[in-house]
Design a protein that fits this description.
Number of domains: 1
Distance between the termini: 15 Å
Organism: Ligilactobacillus salivarius NIAS840
Strand order of the largest sheet: 3-4-2-5-1-6-7-8
Number of strands: 8
Number of helices: 10
Radius of gyration: 18 Å
Pfam families: AAA_31 (PF13614)
Structural class: alpha/beta
CATH class: Alpha Beta
Shape: globular
Protein name: Copy number control protein
Largest sheet: 8 strands, mixed
CATH superfamily: P-loop containing nucleotide triphosphate hydrolases
CATH topology: Rossmann fold
Helix content: 40-55%
């Protein structure tokens, strides 16, 4: 077992990156793939979502004993703070103190390449324990994010069918090529472009998808596409629900299972 390390990205916020990370990893876990999600955002949205998922319908307070930044400061193994959320699904939680990560890198590493490659070494030590490792990053250009990008094998660009999201995808791909691949000889690659469609603007969806196909190539656009769903927003409050008798749960998981299957297909792991 050697994990593939992935991240869903766009430099525009609110496009569905965290939802995609959570629900794709959840469905891969249901399919028997052992998945780890690393929360790399000091806002800790995916940590909150997964803790709600773990403790939903239980009379318990969802708490964490140690976060990512604490483990890095103490030079602890990331295994020591990993939380089991469901069968085959694990989380490395984050908290607001991760806002100090950039200072941590600058204080501890004088060499720029050592800063960029630091987190990859932490992730590589976990590869033999999982099939997939997902890193959920905030939508910013920053030194902390560069360390996450450098740790990845594959990037999935999340494309909300809006002009700004398309521009964000273009900037992201150019940035990865120039600032990560070329600058540091990274092997990270783009697995594909995952469209998130709007509800009512079918003509706009088509225009953006046509523009994306022209810009990136039809073969690089995921066949699986995610429609904006109210159930996904509800899960932010409740945790991930998976009630087989609930048609909206079934519809939501069917969509993200489709993405999970296409990831396996694109990686040659069907």
């Amino acid at each position: 077992m050697t994990a593939t390390v992935l991240s869903f990205l766009n430099f525009k916020g609110g496009v569905g990156k965290t939802s995609a990370t959570a629900l794709v990893s959840y469905n891969l876990a249901k399919m028997g793939k052992k998945c780890l999600v690393i929360d790399f955002d000091p806002q800790a949205n995916i940590t909150a979502l997964f803790l709600k998922t773990k403790y939903q319908n239980k009379d318990k307070v969802a708490t964490i004993e140690s976060s990512l930044m604490t483990a890095l400061n103490r030079e602890e193994s990331l295994d020591s703070i990993t939380i089991e959320i469901e069968d085959n699904l694990y989380l490395i939680p984050n908290a607001v103190d991760f806002s100090m990560y950039s200072r941590f890198l600058e204080r501890n590493f004088m060499d720029e390449k050592e800063r960029i490659s630091f987190f990859k070494k932490k992730v590589d030590s976990l590869r033999d324990k999982y099939d997939f490792i997902f890193i959920d990053v905030p939508p910013t250009i920053s030194l902390p994010n560069d360390t996450a990008f450098y740790a990845c094998d594959q990037i999935i660009v999340v494309l909300q069918t809006q002009e700004r999201s398309l521009q964000g995808a273009e900037v992201l791909i150019e940035y990865l090529q120039n600032s990560i691949v070329d600058a540091y000889d990274s092997k990270v690659d783009i697995l594909g472009i995952l469209p998130f469609l709007s509800k009512r603007s079918a003509s706009v969806d088509k225009e953006i998808l046509d523009a994306a196909s022209e810009e990136f190539g039809d073969e690089n656009i995921f066949n699986a596409k995610i429609m904006q769903m109210e159930r996904v927003k509800r899960m932010d409050m409740t945790g991930i629900t998976d009630n087989p008798s609930d048609s909206w749960d079934k519809k939501t998981h069917a969509a993200f299972k489709g993405v999970a299957n296409e990831i396996l297909e694109r990686l040659g792991e069907e």
